[in-house]
Amino acid sequence: MTTEEQLANKFERLIKDHMRREKLSALSMRELARRMTDAGYPISHGTLTGIRNGRSTIDQRTMDSLCAFFGVPESYFWLPRRQALLLGRLADLDDADLAAVDQLISDLHSRRTGRAER
């Protein structure tokens, strides 16, 4: 799988998660571009279509816009699939849930290393 195809797959998951969160049955790249632009992240539907179809890479500005709009870190696009999926799911959590996840991760690290984290 090429880098562009991997990027397209991860972008597709972000789109599907966004549609689920927003309760949308369909979302064109033209509509997504409008939503992103309205949110302060101007982007063309052609750019989004190229990414979605695995025909293009993305520059840093586009990466920053995608990450900000979808609420994921840049590492989402470069991490192995499982870690990326977990990071994507964190975007839906509120502060209390994020604190619980943070505590769970600390507990898991402590258990693995045999000592408490600070």
Automatic annotation (TrEMBL):
Q: A single Pfam family, by name?
A: HTH_3
Q: Which residues form the HTH cro/C1-type domain?
A: 43-77
Please list the GO terms describing molecular function: DNA binding
Superkingdom assignment: Bacteria
Q: Which Gene3D superfamilies match?
A: lambda repressor-like DNA-binding domains
Q: What InterPro entries is this protein classified in?
A: Cro/C1-type_HTH, Lambda_DNA-bd_dom_sf
Q: Which CDD domains match?
A: HTH_XRE
- Name it: Helix-turn-helix protein
- Species of origin reads Actinoalloteichus fjordicus
